[in-house]
Amino acid sequence: MILPDLAGRTFLVTGANSGIGRAMVEALAPAGARVILASRSRERTEPVAEALRRAYPASQAAFLEIDVSDLNSVRRAAASLLASPQSLDVLVNNAGVAGTRALSADGFDLTYATNHIGPFLLTNLLLPKLSESPAARIVNVASIAHFRAAGLDWATLQRRTAPKRSGFSDYAATKLMNVLHARELARRLAGKRVTTYVLHPGAVASNIWRAVPQPLQWLLKRFMLSNQEGAVTPLYCATAPELATETGQYYDKCKVFRPSPLAQDESLARELWTRTEAAIRG
Fold first, then answer.
1. Does residue 3 form part of some domain?
2. Distance between CA atoms of 33 and 262, rounded to whole angstroms?
3. Dihedral through CA 105, CA 87, CA 247, CA 120, nearest 10?
4. pLDDT for the residue 219
5. Count of alpha carbons within 13 Å of 82, Cβ hemisphere only?
6. Based on the structure, what is the number of domains in the chain?
7. What are the φ/ψ torsions at residue 135 (nearest 5 degrees)?
8. What is the pLDDT of residue 215?
9. Phi and psi at residue 194, to the nearest 5°
């Protein structure tokens, strides 16, 4: 994919040390973008950032330590960005996980904490910085799996004391949340200089499946896209000039695609926002 000239624009990509996130920053840097590689692991991410700095000095590639499943980590990362004089033009909520059996540091199911609750908080905290940009974008990497969500169980936004295995239905529900989040953001930001996008990257053999037991993980990945192929639609949403006036839309294969009926439910989107805010406060 040929990207436009991105000189002077700063992109923050979560989960940038591997998978789609890494493929994105490795495509953004040659186009002149400054890139912030946000992930939990300095050990795994700094070598990626250093390679980008050597090859593309203008990228000013920087590591940002953040565990999106941990609300305190999200707050620390956001505070450091808000205190920085550097601009922020695009936030890509890419980090995700599936098939977990664990609780987050705050007591939420890890799949919900990683895929929705943490990104929701990060986005809200960074809105003041994004709003300073003349044309900011928020990109949520969701999935066509959201079509399989039969609804939202609000108990999944409650803190727990014991973990349970998150199955495909939980993953689908978090991806529905990603779509609803982008649409509600678009409604709340109407008339402002921040636009939102949500997308299906394709079935990608990325690190999102790391919690799925082997050999099922290996079998799944045999039939999936490469990370570079999976990065095409996220990059399109994050950079395409022709999307500058669009907001709140769902994309598949770089085209607007109608999401599931539940994903178009404005009252559900508003309720999800309200309940997620309450979960974070609690």
1. no
2. 36
3. 10
4. 47
5. 14
6. 1
7. -160, 85
8. 55
9. -125, 125
Residue-level pLDDT at 1: 82
Backbone angles phi, psi at 70, to 5 degrees: -110, 115
270's CB contacts (< 8 A; 6+ apart) are 184
In angstroms, rounded to a whole number, what is the distance separating the alpha carbons of residues 112 and 123? 16
Q: What is the mean pLDDT of the chain?
A: 93
What burial letters (b/e) apply to 8-18, b meaning 16+ CB within 10 Å?
ebbbbbbbbbb
Active site residues: 171
Nearest CA-CA partner of 12 in 56, 54, 60, 83: 60
> In this predicted model, what pLDDT tens digit does every residue of 129-165 receive, in sequence order?
999 999 999 999 999 999 999 999 999 999 999 999 9
Residue 22 and residue 76: Cα distance in Å, rounded? 22
Q: For residue 250, is pLDDT > 60?
A: yes
Structure tokens at 96: 């995700």
Evaluate the omega torsion of the peptide bond into residue 30 and state whether it is cis, within 30 degrees of 0: no
Residue 229: both structure tokens together:
């192929």
Tell me the percentage of the chain whose pLDDT exceeds 70.
93
Range of the domain at 135: 10-281
Contact between 163 and 109 (Cβ < 8 Å):
yes
Q: How many Å separate Cα 28 from the centre of its chain?
A: 16
Q: At what angle do helices 232-239 and 19-28 cross, to 10 degrees?
A: 50
Residue 140 inside a domain? The answer is: yes
Distance CA(190)–CA(53), nearest Å, equals 36
Distance CA 189, CA 182 (A): 10
CATH number, domain with residue 121 = 3.40.50.720
Q: Is the pLDDT of residue 193 over 60?
A: yes
Task: Count the Cβ atoms, other than its own, within 10 Å of residue 194.
Answer: 22
- Whether residue 242 is contained in a domain is answered as yes
